[in-house]
Amino acid sequence: MEKKVRVRFAPSPTGPLHIGGVRTALYNYLFAKKYKGDFILRIEDTDQSRLVVGAEEYIIESLEWCGIKFDEGVHIGGQYAPYRQSERKDIYKQYADYLIEKGNAYYAFDTSEDLGIKKKEYESRKQTFQYSSANRMTMNNSLAINDTEVKQKINNGEPYVIRIKIPEKETVEVNDLIRGKVIVNSSQLDDKVLFKSDGFPTYHLANVVDDYLMKISHVIRGEEWLPSAPLHVLLYRYLDWENEMPLFAHLPLLLKPEGNGKLSKRDGDKLGFPVFPLKWTDPKTNEISSGYRESGYFSEAVINILALLGWNPGTEQEIFSMEELINAFSLERVGKSGSKFDPEKAKWFNHQYLLKKSDDEIVNIFAKTLEEKDIKAEYKYILNVCRLVKERVNFVSEIWAQSYFFFEAPKIFNEKALKDKWKENSSQLVAEVKEIICNTENFTAAHLKETVSNYILEKKYGMGQVMNALRICIIGTSIGPDLFEIISMLGKEEIERRINFALQTVNAKFIK
RNA sequence: GGCCCGUUCGUCUAGCUGGCCCAGGACGCUAGGUUUUCAUCCUAGAAAUCAGGGGUUCGAAUCCCCUACGGGCUACCA
């Protein structure tokens, strides 16, 4: 029987999650759900010195906002709890000990000063120091010194780390679901620290142990882990778990738009678009980085964009709901090369989702803007406004700029609009049409249109000539949705008031 | 420096088992149309000598090799 699909997202809480991390979580989630498997959130907080207050909560809230749901995890528990590595601290040591017993690992007593000196020494010779088979016998470790001395050091409480003993020359094969076979010679690997002197395991040990214990079937993570994958394969082998080793898939990285380097947390807002799903305030510096949520993006749009950055369905479909993504997703269709985030296309995606949203949803968001401005209006009125302008904007936050004239009369009149559209006879034409409008009883847009158009036709005026001038008078500028809709919504009295004010103001200006 | 991964329009990408590709779609851009204006929408267009070179083959974006470039890793960080 096939192993049950169980995948995990395993961030370390060293700050906010950026969109690259969200994408990794998303691909894991899509893969899990596609195969009716489990998705697990594990927090990898083995580096106590890099913990950032609030980061874990931020990660959970971000993924929740995105609609990425977990089956097990630090926030909801599960069969394999705990899911925070700091709470699993006690279980790692035995595996490190087991490796020592088997001769696949050893104690090392070198201080960081010792290591630093070595490093400098090698640098001066234009070489790179690597703790490995080539030099481990010259270092201060349990392979180089005798057993009694080792015992003595440990009994004396001398700090030590446990390092893996990488074989001298052995080819190690990693089968990557995205890249195929990657073969590395162990001579290229160094004796990585598995267990630190502070009693915590390093990522390498903790990750392998936890994936095994939590019965993880597939490890889907960023490409930055590819170089250490052979080390992980070796660990599975030495811990006798090679038969249950998960399958690996290393995702291409998200790059900065300028073309160099992977996207990183430090990019904040420097790139001209948010790199974080949610707004983040650095607890130390109080520096604020904007988030997609606060910038007015719909989470569905963000997910859609991210899904298509590195994966494609092979069809021409571009708009995907989460359901559709789950159905369509496959690791085989994940690309190999890194991709840059395109802020312009992101806006377009958001526009698509804005159009798909129900009017009620949009009104609810837009109503907050009105509240802030202390503008009162009936729900139905706001609804009509949103209906009329939503296709003209990418974000709900842009609706105000397209619709303010529904809520307040213009006080000034756009210079350029006047220059382009206001002619000598404009005042006369507007005055005439005002009369027509004010004498119209049925104030629907359709009826107004019919009435005014007929009048213009009869008089052989140009439609554009009249309408442009009228528009300027009513909303103060020359853009916007259908003018008859606007007139109908504002009502007869308001229209009369606005036109009178406009003619006064504009005429005064022209006479001068 | 060493090791690993990658390289198709400005960007995201299709192309995977070689011929249907003098390379298709989307965003953006340009032009035209619709419209009372702007936006939407519709139509059209520009845009990749498939990183470069060498093979293999009747035939290569697709297979192989080399080079260049980009990226990742190279911590008692993840």
Describe the structure.
The chain has 512 residues and is mostly helical. Among the domains are: 87-251, Alpha-Beta Complex (Glutamyl-tRNA Synthetase, domain 3), CATH 3.90.800; 357-397, no CATH class; 409-511, Arc Repressor Mutant, subunit A (Orthogonal Bundle). It has 19 helices and 14 strands. The chain has helices at 19-34, 55-66, 89-102, 112-124, 147-155, 203-213, 229-238, 299-307, 322-328, 343-356, 359-372, 379-389, 399-403, 415-421, 426-438, 445-459, 463-475, 483-490, 492-511; strands at 6-9, 38-41, 72-73, 105-108, 161-164, 171-176, 180-185, 193-195, 218-222, 247-251, 254-255, 280-281, 288-289, 339-340. The strands form six sheets. It has a three-stranded parallel sheet with strand order 1-2-3. A three-stranded antiparallel sheet has the order 4-5-8. A two-stranded antiparallel ribbon has the order 6-7. Strand 2 (38-41), helix 2 and strand 3 (72-73) form a beta-alpha-beta unit. Helix 1 (19-34) packs across helix 9, helix 11 (359-372) packs across helix 12 (379-389) and helix 16 (445-459) crosses helix 18. The longest helix is centred in the last third of the chain and has 20 residues, at 492-511. The chain starts with 5 loop residues before the first strand and ends with a helix. It binds one RNA strand of 78 nucleotides through strand 7, helix 6, strand 14, helix 10 and helix 14.
